[in-house]
Amino acid sequence: MAVCIAVIAKENYPLYIRSVPSQSELKFHYTVHTSLDVVEEKISAVGKAMADQRELYLGLLYPTEDYKVYGYVTNSKVKFVIVVDSSNTSLRDNEIRSMFRKLHNSFTDVMCNPFYNPGDPIQSKAFDSMVSGMMVQAC
Amino acid sequence: MSTPDYMQCAEDHQTVLVVVQPVGIVPEDQFFKIYKRIASVNQVNIRDSQRLLFIRYRHHYPPENNDWGDFQTHRKVVGLIAVTTCASAKEWPQTSERFHGQKEVYGSTLYDSRLLVFGLQGEIAEQQRTDVAFYSSYDNCPDVEKRVEDFVESIFIVLESKRLDRATDKSGDKIPLLCVPFEKKDFVGLDTDSRHYKKRCQGRMRKHVGDLCLQAGMLQDALVHYHMAVELLRSVNDFLWLGAALEGLCSASVIFHYPGGTAGKSGARKASVSQAADAGKRHRPGAQEVLIDPGALTTNGISADTSSEIGRAKNCLSQEDIIEKYKEAISYYGKYKSAGVIELEACVKAVRVLAIQKRAMEASEFLQNAVYINLGQLSEEEKIQRYSILSELYDLIGFHRKSAFFKRVAAMQCVAPTIPEPGWRACYKLLLETLPGYSLSLDPKDFSKGTHRGWAAVQMRLLHELVYASRRMGNPALSVRHLSFLLQTMLDFLSDQEKKEVTQSLENYTSKCPGGMEMITLPDGLKLPPVPFTKLPIVRSVTLLNLPLSLRPHKVKGPVGQNMSTKSPFIYSPIIMHGRGDDRSKKIDFQWVQGDVCEVQLMVYNPMPFELRVENMGLLTSGVDFEPLPAALSLPAESGLYPVTLVGVPRTAGNITVNGYRTSVFGVSSDCLLENLVGVKSSGCMLEVVPSLPRLQLSTSLPRSAHSCGEDMSSSVCVQLFNGETQQLTLTLENIGTETLETLDVTSKVLSTKEKLFGEFLSWDLNQAKSCLPLKPGQSLTLTVNIRVKLDFSGQENLLQDLNDDGISVTGLPISSPLRQVLKPRTENKPVSTDTSKTEFSHIKTLEAVLYFKYSGGAGQVEGYYREVTLGVKVDVEPSVFFTRVSTLPATSTRQCHLLLDVFNSTEHELTLSSRNNEDLLLHASECQRMAIQVDKFDFESLARLQTQSEQTALGSSSRRQQEEERQQAQGGYINSKLDIRWSIPSLRRQGEASVEGVLNQLVLEHLQLAPLQWDVLVNGKPCDCDVVADCKVGDAVPLEVKLTNHSKNTVGPFALTVVPFQDYQNGVQNYDLQDAITFIGSNTFYIDTVNPSDDSVCVGALLFLYTGDFYLNIKFQEEISAGRELPPAWFCLPSVHIKAQEAVEAAA
């Protein structure tokens, strides 16, 4: 399962970032931050081809020695990034997709909250617990 | 080969490598000057072959890299230019020796070499050598470029010959096997005659020839050779060289596709001279040749002509293929550990190509691969170089974040703990370069808009690193700046613990180097703008405060409407007012005064979890010379809104704008401008400063009251008086300002009160005070004000309530005891319960008035300003005496009457009451007594006439009722002045007057009034009034004369009067039966005709007394004829006539 999950606003600043507590949080910040380069590149490349019906799931953004970084972009250009441990080979692409879908649904719920101001950091408890569910417990 | 050249790019494959090196001692700057000049000759147009030769210059090249020269010929050093200084001819042999030594290093591969000698000129006896040039000095060497060009040409000749040599001798001798250094031992003892081996030799040679062709400017040839080499080598699985051949193919194709080069700006090639000549057609030199002889392929250029394009297409790789082939080549290189450098360089070259093609994703894959290429043990310097080049390449493909990441890694590498001498300066410089990647600018203004949005954790880390690096660099000012920036912009993201740490270290730094507002400019030109601490403390609102009431300047009002007329032709227009509202919105409608302390109130709060000490907090203003008086404050941790008043003194007059404030927090002084602050409420920041005015200080002889009566009062006095008392108040006005006081004006205003006040409350004489003017600073003047309280003495409100319904009527009732009965228990109650005492106090009435002192002087007066100091006067009026009842009794004379006053002493003291020509009356506490005063009746008509004359001019339009009231008041005053009732309390030594003004009602007044019809009765020619007894003789005719004088406004009459004589036996019996005692001579009825106003009429009759005795005459009106029915009966009040008839003898006696 994931070791870090991040939601990034349209303007590329983090709305939500959470990682497994055991490891240096800053490291994941760096990882997610640098992954945005690839996300942007992918969006701009896809955007040219077919603006309307592009795939939200961006796939593997880049692999590092220890982690694999996956990306997902909503139609409103909000990005989701999931960092997965490289050692976890059992994780299939489909599972990642379903994680993103869950994340997207939960994010939609957050946005539906009339008291949530778009652009503010996400502080929803429901969202938080959903993310916790996706994070590794053992790690 | 261990040192990769990260700067390599694909087109470097077509260059020849020339090493330029200093020999002996050459000053570095001079060497690089020469080096630069040499390096400017980076492409040479070979004269006869129309080909271009590109040269790559290096001033340092590791010889072991030279060993790979066979593998890729552009790695081979083919030329050497040595630069040396030679002071004298003696040194020459030694220098020459060294040059030769230098040549040995690259000896195996050198085609040619040159020596540039500086310092000597023609002093060498040796014969002219072609490879040595002499110059007198570094500055005087005009033909260096020319010489280098010659040198390059000579290299070309060798290159060309080599190419031709290698290209042609393929069928002849046995082809030698070219190999890279690490391969050499692998081929020992290999069968050199096998086909496989031969093919390998052929393939490698092909590749080599391809390289040479490429260098010699024959692109097409090179492509052909590379293709052949690829095929040959692929068949023998010679992967390293296959990779090299593929890379060569790619390079050639890249050169073909991207004549501009791939190295980016720094490596951009000079547009070739010939290209410039016919740039329109993009013809390269040699294009013509291609057309004539396509087979010759002697061109290095490309042509726009499709004909040549077709011929080339099969050899040249397409853009996609280039990347494919690069990938392949790199994968082959990857098979060999020792070829790491080659692989890395290939990656870099491929990335550059991809960057041009704008295929960032693929480029990032190449880079990702490059990151993992292990080059064995790298020195720290190489690591730094590697990371920074990675960063650069990421930047090239638009991955700024990744680029920043690697740059930061490089920066950290600079100061890795393993390095003995950490390069903090380099680290700092690299860190600065990462800022854009983390979308961080060092200008706090970029962060002032709204909430901060960014990667706070990452940015904070970077700022911490900047702080640390700058500190280690030994630039505390810089670290203070970065740290304050961190604190200012990242405040929301710092935990409480971090806030403490950051501020502590900031205080540590500032103890050495205080932070300021000046711009810090770094040596490389980067400017660090100042960081004002607008969040320490956070300011929520800014309010300019008006001066205290007594110091406020007021404008002398000009003629009415003057202001209006200048603004608009309309009296009122909402549209214009609205439009005007906008530009006025910032201007505040009160003024400050030059030289006076002015205040601005800020609402601040402290966001820090600890106490915040703000020092030197002052105002920043513009427009007027302003002397801020800084304040220091200490805000408790996480305080709520906290008011802070900043003060200052404007030194000149004009418009002042408050721009912001200055603080000093943690040793960092900051100028915070309001315009840059977010969420500050301000009601405007501009106002007018008027020229200086004098200042008056007011002190009084009476004690000041504890509480001010009104909030707009500068000061007030409080005094307790008995009703009717008069008190003197001495005021001292001192000029405590710096200006001379020139005018002073005093007015007063009684605050609206329900109490009816008689007489003037406050009175003063200003003339004496005015004689003291002008009042110089420090001087003072005194003014005496009389406070006179004269309230209603009737006590109706209080007392009548108590006696509510006993139907009090002024004339009728006798002195009633209920009053005393009611009041007595009250006074007894007083000490018992406080509650009742309170109600008792309600008897105390309060009078308030304000004295206004308008004064002006100095420059402010010229501008039309004045100041006003106010003094509130509050008087608690205790009741002294009350007149509980007032009635009149007719006196014996019709011209007089008795005024009966029931006086009640409401004080707790003994009180004496005096009135004009009456003896004193002693009243004990709460005692009521009747007092009778004989008064002459008043002729109100004449009084009213006097008054109306004066009033009609002043108050022409006052209503009738008002007039009536005023008339009554005037009458009261008049009566009062006649009565002059005074009280005194001997025990308290206080005295005052008592006024009946409020007591008198209409009925009493009428009684006191002299009737307008004046009747005079004359008996025997003598006026006869009540007490006067007229004497007459029995038997004599007594003439009786009745005279009517009409003082009223209307004509009266006619009247008929009947005279009825009677005798009073003084026992209640009146005898009217007197026909035999008195005889009328003539009629007993008098007729008076109509009398005009202020006229009189007399009628005369006569009586004859037949007997002696006391007789009375009752003169009656005959009702039938009386036309004056509507007139009040009081008007027909004739004196009764008392006649004593005597014998003639008696009378004589």
TrEMBL record, chain A:
InterPro entries: Longin-like_dom_sf, Sedlin, TRAPPC2L. GO terms for biological process: endoplasmic reticulum to Golgi vesicle-mediated transport. It comes from the Eukaryota. Keywords: Cytoplasm, Endoplasmic reticulum, ER-Golgi transport, Golgi apparatus, Transport. Its main location: cytoplasm. Pfam families: Sedlin_N (PF04628). It is found in: Cytoplasm, Perinuclear region; Endoplasmic reticulum; Golgi apparatus. GO terms for cellular component: endoplasmic reticulum; Golgi apparatus; perinuclear region of cytoplasm. Belongs to the TRAPP small subunits family. Sedlin subfamily. PANTHER family: TRAFFICKING PROTEIN PARTICLE COMPLEX SUBUNIT 2 (PTHR12403). This is Trafficking protein particle complex subunit 2-like protein.
TrEMBL record, chain B:
It comes from the Eukaryota. The gene is trappc9. Residues 951-971 are annotated as: Disordered. It comes from Chanos chanos. GO terms for cellular component: trans-Golgi network. Its main location: Golgi. Residues 890-1008 form the Trs120/TRAPPC9 third Ig-like domain. Residues 186-259 form the Trs120/TRAPPC9 N-terminal domain. Residues 539-667 form the Trs120/TRAPPC9 first Ig-like domain. This is Trafficking protein particle complex subunit 9. Belongs to the NIBP family. Residues 361-508 form the Trs120/TRAPPC9 TPR region domain. The lineage of its organism: Eukaryota, Metazoa, Chordata, Craniata, Vertebrata. It is found in: Golgi apparatus.
